[in-house]
Design a protein that fits this description.
The complex is a heterodimer.
Chain A: H1 2-26, E1 46-47, E2 57-58, H2 59-62, E3 68-73, H3 78-82, H4 84-92, E4 96-102, H5 106-116, E5 122-126, H6 130-134, E6 142-146, E7 152-157, H7 165-173
Parallel strand pairs in A: 3-4, 4-5
Antiparallel strand pairs in A: 1-2, 3-6, 6-7
Chain B: H1 2-13, H2 18-21, H3 33-43, H4 62-76, H5 81-92, H6 107-132
Classes of the chains: A alpha/beta, B mainly alpha.
């Protein structure tokens, strides 16, 4: 009798494996790599300003009591141009947006801002991409919600679509 | 002749280009072969966050190149490879390392072989006992 039960074990195992395969086909794996810094202090970075050397990006500056959006972008990044209207809308809501331009140069960046508008209060130049790694960012564009004490409360990966704006505003209002 | 002059000109001018002023370790090996080997071993076990299946040592993605440069610079500065791995994990999570560590979500990975081995031993012992009879 027990032998007969044991005969079913391989079948049960295969059925279980097939169920897992089926479930994963229906629910594709999320390939995004989130930053491990969400919930932690913004790393101590200090970047030279892009357009005005005096207004660079400094971690201490982000902890000035006001929440900020930190947008990791680049002039060579096509989706970044696509999210420019979204960022402009957020800026019009009175949200302070700090830009970090990855692997960029001033002439290209100037042209990009002239074409797509400049919603940034300041832009730091991350010439060698080191700050991007420091942030645990896996690509451009990415946006971090930083609260008034300089803590990263949320990371938005990818383009800011119109439907993301309400959540971002709510997050930043809650991140004093 | 023309080609030679051109080559000479390029060679003379290249150190002036700002990009080359500081050594870019993205694709340049460290001068010290021992340190380069250490760096390479670490790069082989750090996963590229853009192309995902590949280690950063074999990836063309820009971010993988940035990570290679970071690893070489830190190794050259005397940092331990495992410290650099831990630092990268603190940025991108355990996912970034191909060397899985034991924590709740990776526990099955470590425990299943052990359980399978014990189950196998029990099974074989059962068989032998039967045969002995």
């Amino acid at each position: 009798m027990t032998r007969r039960i044991w005969l079913w074990v391989p079948f049960a195992f295969v059925a279980f494996a097939l169920a897992i395969f089926g479930w994963n086909l229906a629910h594709p794996v999320d390939r995004r790599v989130p930053s491990a810094l969400v919930g932690q202090q913004f790393p101590s970075v200090s970047l030279a300003g892009a357009l005005d050397p005096a207004s660079g990006v400094d971690a201490a500056l982000l902890a000035n009591g006001q929440p900020h959006l930190v947008n990791v972008f680049a002039s060579w990044c096509v989706p970044c141009a696509a999210e420019a209207p979204g960022l402009t809308l957020l800026q019009q809501q009175g949200i302070d947006i700090v830009g970090i331009a990855v692997h960029d140069n001033v002439p290209d960046l100037t042209q990009f801002l002239a074409q797509n508008g400049n919603p940034y209060s300041r832009i730091g130049m991350d010439y060698n991409g080191r700050t991007q790694i420091e942030l645990g960012s896996a690509g451009v564009p990415e946006t971090f919600v930083v609260d008034g004490r300089g803590k990263i409360v949320r990371q938005h990966i990818g383009v800011i679509e119109p439907e993301d704006i309400a959540t971002l505003i709510a997050d930043i209002r809650g991140a004093q | 002749m023309m080609l030679r002059i051109l080559t000479l000109l390029v060679l003379l001018l290249s150190p002036l280009s700002p990009a080359l002023a500081q050594v870019d370790y993205t694709n340049t090996e460290l001068a010290d072969p021992v340190k380069e080997r250490e760096a390479k071993a670490l790069m082989d076990t750090i996963r590229c966050v853009v192309c995902q299946g590949q280690p950063i040592s074999g990836s063309n993605a820009g971010l993988a190149g940035d990570m290679r440069a970071l690893i070489r610079e830190r190794i050259a500065a005397g940092e331990e490879p495992e410290a650099i791995r831990a630092w990268l994990i603190s940025r991108y999570g355990a996912w970034v390392s191909f060397k899985p560590e034991l924590h709740p979500s990776s526990a099955p990975l470590w425990l299943i072989p052990l359980i399978a081995l014990i189950a196998g031993i029990v099974l074989i012992r059962g068989r032998f006992k039967k045969r002995a009879k």
